[in-house]
Structures are given as C-alpha cells and as structure tokens.
Amino acid sequence: MDISPLQFPTLSGSAAVNPALSITPSTQVQATPGSDTEFGSLVLDGLDRLEGLTDKADGLAVQAATGKLENIHDYTIAASEASVASQLTVALRNKAVDAFNEIMRMQV
C-alpha cells in the first residue's frame, strides 16, 4: 500500500491560522472581502471538515473493533488527524473568546 504525502494549499488570512478552514476552489464563497458572510462560511466549513474527520475516525474505529479493518494504521492516522484538528479548533475558539473579552473590557 502506497502512502501519499500530505499536501496543503497556500493559505492566507484566517485560513493560514487553521488549515481546516481553508477554502478549495470548488467551495469558494461568493461574498465581498471582509464581510460577515465570508467569515461565517469559513467557520462553518471548518466545523464541517472537523466533523468529517471525526466521523471517519469513528467509522474506522468500529471496523478495527469488529476485525473488518485490514490496515490498523489507517485508523491510527485518521484518529491522529481528528485529534490535531480538534485541538486546533479548541485553541482558535479560546483565542477568539479571549479577544472578545479583551474588547469588552475596553473603555469607550
């Protein structure tokens, strides 16, 4: 079995911070730059991708537990990808909450 290397597209803006939020040409958002719609779509797309990674890892875990999975390393890789994506998403959420709290503490 041949294992292909991971390839990441060139990222800019918020997608550079979280590759899970990157937009492929087929899923580009038709919104004006800097609009709330674009940001919201990026967040939802990132969460959908995270859910897809965890679903894939869960499915492979079931196959491994039932003995239907021939290559256990497929599960290990999927579980690691889901774990890293989850950790990155939580870190980004924490930074966003910290930034919001800092803005709320500002005196006007």
UniProtKB/TrEMBL annotation:
The family classification in the record reads: Belongs to the FliE family.
Instruction: List the HAMAP family hit by this protein, alphabetically.
Output: FliE
Keyword annotations: Bacterial flagellum, Cell projection, Cilium, Flagellum
The highest taxon in the source lineage is Bacteria
Biological source species: Nocardioides aromaticivorans
GO MF? cytoskeletal motor activity; structural molecule activity
Which Gene Ontology BP annotations are present?
Answer: bacterial-type flagellum-dependent cell motility
Which InterPro entries does UniProt cross-reference here?
A: FliE (IPR001624)
Q: What is this protein called?
A: Flagellar hook-basal body complex protein FliE
Location in the cell reads: Bacterial flagellum basal body
Q: Which PANTHER family match?
A: FLAGELLAR HOOK-BASAL BODY COMPLEX PROTEIN FLIE, PTHR34653
Q: What is its main location?
A: other
GO cellular component term of the entry, any = bacterial-type flagellum basal body
